[in-house]
Design goal:
single chain, 362 residues, alpha/beta, Rossmann fold, SH3 type barrels, six-stranded antiparallel sheet, 24% helix
Length: 362
């Protein structure tokens, strides 16, 4: 019986994962990972832990609480706040997975004698390679793209081949205590809370000017650190008589030092916006992605089926490789158009359903 530690979050996905592994003959231990929460929001982790404990009791498996609060704060929360303060747009879920669930939790589990760790993520590990899940609406391969083969050989995703509806049905048929519990929302390390609300409380941003591409003041915002490239909500535009574009403005740039954001109603993100210096026409529309998750990347760089995803649930954009050097990959969209993204956002490279890797976009 191979020993596996399952990260029980208190939700239905991780609970069904533990159930399936036990049915397959694994020696299963449930582990609730205690993360970090600010002291100014209602405590939720205790309720989540109780739900996880109920699942473990129902399945008759050992249960452990692993306190990673300080690691969360150091490796995820502090980094997120530092990056936003610089004007970047980091991804909390990427960091939670890389640093905590498949970083600290995996390291601790292996030291405790486990051969594998498992979670309720919607993704698939096949031949030490990360693949998209069967449920494309729930697929989380984007958030898992920082995992290398070193970690993947010790990871199981028991529900990656299932639809969410099938997971719920399995939970109900086996009378799991969490069968009807709602899915968690919000920030990975905080819970049901919007990122902007979290940043407002932690960084105390100040109101500033909204300017157009000519530098003319046309409105007001709540703090430049709160906005990302391509955003079209959350700032106020001073309405002028006959202005038909008042609801069509997008953020195209921001200046953290001056606390200003630049908006446009014509320069629509996804056509001509760049957060890197504008490349020559048709060249390096996307650039410098640090590839980390596969050993045979060089063998696949000439594939005609490469695509990049620059946000969770975003469409896959067909690309071709322009250059690969020192672990960095330069890409170009196949149609020659550039794509809008903000510094700090992650790009993930796919070959059909296979995840080749990903990293921060420059």
């Amino acid at each position: 019986m191979k020993k596996v530690f399952v990260g029980l979050s208190g939700g239905v996905d991780s609970s069904v994962s533990a159930l399936l592994l036990k049915q397959q003959g694994f020696d299963v231990t449930g582990v609730y990972i205690k993360g970090w929460q600010p002291d100014w929001i209602p405590c939720t982790w205790k309720d989540d832990r109780i739900s996880a404990l109920r699942t473990a009791a129902h399945l008759d498996i050992p249960f452990i609480t692993l306190d990673l609060e300080q690691k969360y704060k150091q490796k995820v929360v502090n980094y997120i706040l530092e990056e936003y303060a610089k004007g970047n747009t980091p991804n909390p879920d990427m960091l939670c997975n890389r640093e905590i669930k498949f970083g600290e939790f995996l390291k601790w589990s292996l030291a405790m004698g486990a051969e594998y760790v498992a979670t309720g993520h919607y993704s698939v590990v096949q031949d030490v390679q990360l693949l998209e899940s069967a449920d494309k609406e729930k697929d989380q391969s984007y958030f898992l793209s920082q995992l290398t083969q070193k970690e993947l050989k010790h990871i199981l995703f028991p529900i990656g081949h299932l639809q969410k509806s099938e997971v719920r049905k399995i939970a109900e048929e086996n009378n799991l205590p969490v069968a009807t519990r709602k899915d968690s929302q919000g920030i990975c390390f905080v819970g049901d809370l919007e990122m902007k609300d979290f940043l407002k409380r932690e960084l105390n941003p100040q109101k500033g000017k909204v300017v157009n591409e000519n530098g003319e003041e046309i409105g007001e915002h709540d703090g430049a650190i709160l906005y990302t490239i391509g955003e079209r909500h959350g700032f106020k535009i001073n309405k002028k008589e006959g202005d038909e574009n008042i609801h069509k403005y997008y953020v195209v740039a921001k200046d953290i030092n001056k606390n200003t954001i630049v908006v446009s109603s014509s320069n629509i993100p996804g056509t001509r916006i760049h957060s890197c210096p504008a490349p020559s026409k048709g060249q390096y529309s996307l650039a410098l992605i640090n590839i980390s998750s596969t050993n045979n990347l060089v063998d696949t760089l000439e594939s005609t089926n490469l695509a990049i995803r620059i946000r969770y649930r975003g469409i896959k954009i067909p690309v071709e490789v322009k250059n690969y050097e020192n672990g960095y990959l330069s890409l170009q969209t196949k149609n020659g158009e550039s794509v809008a993204y903000a510094p700090g956002q992650f790009g993930v490279l796919y070959e059909e359903e296979k995840v080749l890797g990903g990293g921060e976009l420059c």
